[in-house]
Each structure stands twice: as structure tokens, then as C-alpha cells.
Task: inverse folding
């Protein structure tokens, strides 16, 4: 299984390397006020893919953090409640 994992990684690396070598033409990204940035297409794609992955991970982390805090609050609330069955109160005896 270890060899299959390394072979998969090697094939993926070679495919990405071939993609980068075939897409070395410079592209221009135009911003506001006439600003422009020129870089190879493969670099631009890599940067935007990385930025998207980082934003997606940050969004998931935020949701997971909020759910973890809610779960901790519920567990603390349940821990302070008395355990066992409550004794019934006799409402007829006054």
C-alpha cells in the first residue's frame, strides 16, 4: 500500500510539472486605475488555487470553532445538573 501511495504522488507531481511547463506564457492581470501584473499562467493559477483553498479552510475552521464552543457549553451545562432520578414531590400533603 505504501508503494501505491508513492506511485500516485509521483504521477500527480509529474502531471502538475508537465502542466506548469506547458503554461509558461505570461498573462496580464489588470487592476483598477490602470495597474497591471504580468506572471506565468501556471503561477497565477497556482496562487489563486492556493488562495481559494486557504479561504475555504478558514471558513470551515470558523464553523467548526463555533460548533465546538457550543458543544463545550452544552457539556458544561449538562455536567452541573443533578444526576439520577428526581424524587417525586407529594402535592397532596400540605
Result:
Amino acid at each position: 500500500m505504501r508503494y501505491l501511495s508513492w506511485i500516485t504522488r509521483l504521477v500527480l507531481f509529474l502531471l502538475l510539472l508537465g502542466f506548469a511547463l506547458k503554461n509558461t506564457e505570461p498573462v496580464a492581470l489588470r487592476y483598477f486605475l490602470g495597474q497591471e501584473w504580468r506572471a506565468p499562467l501556471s503561477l497565477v493559477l497556482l496562487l489563486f488555487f492556493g488562495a481559494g483553498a486557504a479561504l475555504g479552510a478558514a471558513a470551515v475552521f470558523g464553523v467548526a470553532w463555533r460548533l465546538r464552543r457550543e458543544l463545550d457549553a452544552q457539556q458544561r451545562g449538562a455536567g452541573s445538573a443533578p444526576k439520577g432520578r428526581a424524587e417525586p414531590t407529594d402535592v397532596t400533603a400540605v
